[in-house]
Amino acid sequence: MISHVPVSSALIALAGALVCAVLCAAILAWLLKSGLAWRLATDIPNERSLHVRPTPRIGGWGLIPVSAIAIVVLAPSIWLIALGAVFLAAVSQIDDRRGLPARVRFAAHFVAVAALLVSFPPSLPWWCGAALAFLMLWLVNLYNFMDGADGLAGGMTLFGFAGYAIAAFIAPHAVPQLGWACAAIAGAAFGFLLFNFHPARIFLGDAGSIPTGFLAGALGYWGWRSSVWPIWFPVFVFAPFIGDATVTLLRRLSRGEKFWQAHREHYYQRMVRLGAGHAFTALAWYLVMLTGIALALSALGRSVIMQWGILAGWSVVLVLLGAAIDVRWRSFQSLTSQSEVDADASQ
């Protein structure tokens, strides 16, 4: 049975989200105005980029400190999650600025996830814990992979953590503190999105995307461990992005490519290249994600069979959407190849 949200909890969540939105926006605006943004980390366009102008990658400088402080203030029992996010932000900033070997980056991700699971172990066999660790590590990295189009990662953060917050309030075993923390992160994401929606003035960068992915996994794990939601709920909330990154990864691995290298093969990247543009692509993904979150929330109070049935049905819808983009993409490639052949023949 879905519970009602006390007015006081809702007001705290709204106030926290508003304060975090203002603080994040103020920090980012100051970094841009002062010129520090360009010195901290700048994304220079290359043949694999979707943008054409150098753009600061400093979104994490506003999003992560604000989110971490909000977690400590509103949900002090999970301060370790805030610490893990700050640790990953610091390591990732070095990567943004100077570059780090992949093994060093992945080692830092593993340390953060392992510290969380060791400090708050699940009541599961060891192999289930290992599977959880792998899934959380994947979520950490897929967030970075999805930070490649204007407004996409920012919107994913806004809607995903807002979905977490609502669930933390209305679930049968509600945990208001978790809801407050998630609402605050969603608010900070809105502050970032003001600068990230098309045409983007800043990007999230590794210092923002990596710790945000950790927060998505860690808070999803905490909600499950606290019996706020079932194990499938975090996956359902971020399903469009998990699906995109996973399918793209498997395709690249099947061709023997290094999955951590930059590319333009994600579904959202193909949509932009097909002519949908950054703004339309982001809005389309927002609609898909909002639909999935609404379905996930509606499934919380239902039977286990119904919950998994809704998840399976939504998975089929996502597969069909991906297949439709694949069909358009193959047609686009055929036309492009034919145009190149015609151009060569005319010379």
Structure report:
The chain has one domain (7-346). It has 13 helices and 2 strands. The chain has helices at residues 7-34, 36-40, 59-74, 79-97, 102-119, 126-145, 152-170, 176-196, 206-225, 232-237, 239-254, 267-299, 304-346, and strands at residues 42-43, 55-56.
Topology diagram in text:
Layout: H1 7-34, H2 36-40, E1 42-43, E2 55-56, H3 59-74, H4 79-97, H5 102-119, H6 126-145, H7 152-170, H8 176-196, H9 206-225, H10 232-237, H11 239-254, H12 267-299, H13 304-346
Antiparallel strand pairs: 1-2
Short recap of the structure:
Helix content is 76%, strand content 1%. The protein has helices at 7-34, 36-40, 59-74, 79-97, 102-119, 126-145, 152-170, 176-196, 206-225, 232-237, 239-254, 267-299, 304-346, and strands at residues 42-43, 55-56. The radius of gyration is 20 Å and the shape is globular.
What structural category do the secondary elements indicate?
Answer: mainly alpha
Total DSSP E strands:
2
| Average pLDDT taken over every residue | 88
Number of helices: 13
Strand fraction equals under 5%
For this entry, what is the oligomeric state of its chains?
single chain
Residues in helix, %: over 70%
Euclidean distance between termini CA atoms:
71 Å
Shape: globular
Sequence of strands across the biggest β-sheet: 1-2
Number of domains: 1
**Helix and strand pattern:** HHEEHHHHHHHHHHH
Report on the biggest sheet.
2 strands, antiparallel
Poorly predicted regions are 340-347
Instruction: Compute the CA-based radius of gyration.
Output: 20 Å
